[in-house]
Structure formats: structure tokens, C-alpha cells
Design a protein that fits this description.
This protein has about 400 residues and is mainly β. The chain contains one helix and 32 strands. The strands form nine sheets. The protein has a five-stranded mixed sheet, with no helix packed on it.
């Protein structure tokens, strides 16, 4: 009896010691959102309460209030450059019928209203109406940098600029000056258009996918079958231009990934949608081409290009923006909307929901840059830093 009791005591002591050793090991670092500043998108000096402290925001964050800073006056209109303002590090925004630029420290450099259509990127913007026969392009400081000499609808994607031509079946890639680099004319309506560093991808209502290099040379052509009614509802091309992804068809709708193998394009992954969509969807490759992110009914779907598997990250509403961080963590940030509630979600590789916050708004936008999230909503812009602690 004494030996048995001694054994139990020694066993308990060993287990306690093991527990203390394991418990003392540091836990993995967790993602934190830190609100830095919130300003009006109008160029004023007023600073608002932090977005993360707003009563309409769901989620937790640390708060670091910035002191009020004087913001330079805005460029009063397109074509009027202000030499006193430094636009070299400007970040673009577009909300409802206003666009402009601001700096990482919360200085709103410009805010321009437009009555009809507009496009904006880090290096230029354009505003135009229904009857424009030409479209002027402006630098962030408001100086005219070019002109497009034909009508159409502008689409800026990163550094790339496109003009969707009247009729809905043809498009052109533009130089920064607005001069047309090349045009591709087709017969079926254009239903998807995207680009990467190396390539451009177009999808059509007849189910055809075509990729081009940035000189307009066709690189890949594919017509995925398997649906009752062929139509491309979304498409993306990888950074190298070798991989493409698309949401295809109605009646047996499926998502596909295809790769260029020995000069031929082959479908390497596909899955049928349990709840098909009848609208255009957003699709984006990771920079390292290891995964594709796309909008589905019920959330964000992530498909691996190597393991050929997919995961669903539940999110409510429609996905409006998918942006990869330019820091080494490899996170992807998603802006989604469900009625009047917007949610920003941090997705760690491969498909881990690392954290999110929500807010009420009628319009919103998201920019990810150097470890910070810049969130626009209803005439306000907030900077939220991301860190691991």
C-alpha cells in the first residue's frame, strides 16, 4: 500500500512538473488592430474619434490617438496643380461620388467630386461624363498628364489602365498618357477583365477566356465546358501569367484553375458551386501563386494551386476587395458588405480568420500598404496598423 501511494505521489509530481514546463512556453503571437487616426476626407484640420472606438464598430483594438495636424488645402479641381503639396507618397481613395488622395500620416491632399464616372490609381485619375468624346487623365497633384481620344468606360487595375469600348465586346490597354497600346475586338460581350504584372485576362459571355501579354499578344485561350450556359463571371491571372482562374457558367457552375503546361493550357483544379451565383465575382491570386481567393455564396473560398484543395471562410454578404499585404506575413485582407454593415477580415495563410472588425456605412473602401489598413467610410478615412503581439 505504501509503495502504491508513493508511486501515485511521484506520478503526480512528474505530471505537475511537465505541466509547468509546457505552460511556461510562450504562446503564438496574435494579430492586433491599432487605430492610429481618423480624419474627414475633406481637406480640413478636424480629427474624428477613432474608427475602432466608434459605437457602430464590432471588434476589439488598441487605440492610439494622434494629435490634430494641419492638413494642406485641396486641389480645387482637375487640372490645377498645387506645387506646395507633396504627392509622392499619396494614397488614393474613392467613395460614392468623390475621389482624392491622402498621406499615411492623415493629411488629405485632395477631394474631387464627379457627377458620373471616374477611375483612380496611385499615379493618376480621370473623371468623365456620359457624352465625353475624349477623357483627360490627371496626375495626383491635379496636373494634366494625358488624354484618351475616344469614348468608353475606364478601368484602372493597379498600374494598368484599360478602356472598355462602346458596344461592350472590345477593350484597349492604355499607356499612362492615355495613348492606346493595343485593342482586342471580339463578338461576345466582355464579362470579366483583370491583369497582373505579366498578363491581362479577359472573359466573355460565350464562355471564352483569353490571356494577353502587355503588348497585346495572345498567350492562352480556353473555353471551359461543363455548364448549361457558358459565361465567365469572374477571372484572374497570376503574377507570372502562367496560371488563370475563373468562375464559369450557369447550370452546373464551377470554379476552375488552369495552368500553362508545356505550351498548352490545362485545367488543374475545378469544383462545382453548391450555391451558384448570377453576378460578377472578385477573384485574386496570391503573389506567390500558391492560392486563389474568390467570392462565393456564404463567404470567401480559398483554393490551393499545389494541394488542389479548397476551404471556405464564412463571411456574410458580398466581397468588395481582396488585397494581399506587402509585408512578410503574407496576410490577405478582405472587405465585405452585408446590407449596411461592412467588415474587414484578416486572413492568415492558408485560410485562417485571424481577426476582423465591422462598421456601419453607406459606402466604404480599403487600401493595404506597408502593414497598415486605410479604411474609408462615408466621408472619413481611418488608418489602422496591424501588428503581432
Amino acid at each position: 500500500m505504501t509503495k502504491k501511494l508513493s508511486f501515485i505521489i511521484w506520478l503526480c509530481a512528474v505530471l505537475c512538473l511537465l505541466y509547468c514546463i509546457l505552460a511556461s512556453r510562450p504562446l503564438g503571437k496574435e494579430l492586433h488592430f491599432t487605430s492610429v487616426w481618423t480624419v474627414s476626407s475633406e481637406p480640413k484640420t478636424e480629427f474624428f474619434p477613432d474608427l475602432m472606438n466608434d459605437s457602430s464598430v464590432a471588434g476589439e483594438a488598441e487605440n492610439k490617438k494622434a494629435p490634430a495636424k494641419k492638413t494642406p488645402s485641396a486641389t480645387e479641381g482637375a487640372g490645377e496643380a498645387d506645387s506646395k503639396i507633396d504627392f509622392s507618397n499619396a494614397i488614393p481613395f474613392k467613395m460614392a461620388q468623390n475621389l482624392g488622395y491622402f498621406t499615411p500620416d492623415g493629411k488629405v491632399l485632395s477631394n474631387i467630386s464627379f457627377p458620373y464616372k471616374a477611375a483612380i490609381s496611385a499615379d493618376s485619375y480621370a473623371v468623365y461624363g456620359m457624352d465625353n468624346e475624349t477623357i483627360d487623365i490627371f496626375s495626383p497633384d491635379g496636373s494634366k498628364s494625358g488624354q484618351i481620344d475616344r469614348p468608353g468606360f475606364l478601368f484602372f487595375h493597379g498600374k494598368d489602365k484599360f478602356l472598355l469600348l462602346p458596344g461592350g465586346a472590345s477593350f484597349a490597354e492604355l499607356e499612362d498618357s492615355g495613348k492606346i497600346k493595343w485593342i482586342y475586338e471580339y463578338t461576345a460581350p466582355l464579362t470579366a477583365l483583370s491583369s497582373s504584372e505579366s498578363a491581362v485576362i479577359a472573359g466573355y459571355a460565350d464562355g471564352k477566356l483569353i490571356t494577353f501579354d502587355h503588348d497585346g499578344k495572345i498567350d492562352q485561350e480556353l473555353t471551359p465546358s461543363g455548364s448549361d450556359y457558358p459565361v465567365i463571371l469572374g477571372a484572374a491571372v497570376s503574377k507570372s501569367g502562367d496560371k488563370i482562374a475563373a468562375l464559369c457558367g450557369q447550370g452546373g457552375q464551377r470554379f476552375i484553375i488552369a495552368e500553362k503546361i508545356k505550351g498548352h493550357t490545362e485545367i488543374t483544379f475545378h469544383e462545382y458551386m453548391e450555391k451558384p451565383l448570377s453576378r460578377q465575382v472578385l477573384i485574386a491570386f496570391k503573389d506567390d501563386e500558391s492560392a486563389v481567393y474568390y467570392d462565393t455564396e456564404g463567404g470567401l473560398k480559398i483554393a490551393g494551386t499545389k494541394n488542389k484543395k479548397s476551404d471556405l471562410l464564412p463571411l456574410k454578404g458580398r466581397i468588395l476587395s481582396i488585397q494581399e499585404s506587402d509585408t512578410k506575413d503574407g496576410n490577405v485582407y478582405v472587405l465585405s458588405r452585408n446590407d449596411s454593415e461592412y467588415t474587414v477580415t484578416a486572413v492568415e495563410p492558408f485560410s485562417v480568420n485571424a481577426g476582423s472588425f465591422s462598421f456601419k456605412a453607406t459606402t466604404a473602401c480599403l487600401t493595404v500598404k506597408k502593414g497598415s489598413l486605410y479604411v474609408g467610410r462615408d466621408g472619413q478615412i481611418s488608418r489602422i496598423d496591424v501588428s503581432y503581439k
